[in-house]
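Researcher: We're teaching a course module on how sequence relates to structure. For the next exercise, students receive a sequence and then see the predicted structure as tokens, so they can try to spot secondary structure elements on their own. Here is the exercise chain.
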Amino acid sequence: MDAIRIAIADDHPIIRDGFETILMLQDDFNVIGTASNGKEAIQLARLDPDVILMDVQMPVLSGVEATRIIKDKHPGIYILMLTSHTNGHDVMEAISNGASGFLLKDWETEKIITSIKDALTGKMQIPQTAASSIKELLHSWHNENLHDKAWNKFGLSEREMEIANLLVQGFRNAEIARKLFLSIGTVKNYTSSLYKKLEVRTRREAIIRLKNEN
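Model: And here is the predicted structure for the students to work with:
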């Protein structure tokens, strides 16, 4: 069986070199390149790695944004975010951009190796420490997006209510798709349904109608 091809992107040389050393000691891993920022990580993707270990925060271009760009061009590459700590916002944004999960930098070597292999089988890697913050964030978004009962008279579904709230806040379709973990096409379909229920034809008219009902 061929060795798993891995690229590592982290702006801290000690972390980057440490991961490279650990992984190169494994017979079934082959580190094919390293990067110190998100822009370099995008270039590394051209080498066709199986997995990229991507630091969340890096100069020039963040790991989260680099992940989005790489997954658009190379959907077959698995990307695992590297971080010293996790929070709900980081996790949800990275996953919505195509990441396969997170690895904590202070994990033991065995756990890191196992997590990388598990990611290649499709298992999402989410540290337990992030679970509670994700739950709280989802609860907060749910309450925020559904708070306005004045819109109930339009007969909006729960999802349409969420999208209506984001429209009023000025988010575009691509941003709404990332926040709600939907495809842009699905968001467009919901938006069209929303327009019909509001009896409007354009995004501007929809926003005005919704704001006037506050």
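Model: If you want an answer key for the exercise: The chain has two domains: 4-128, 146-212. The longest helix spans residues 128-145.
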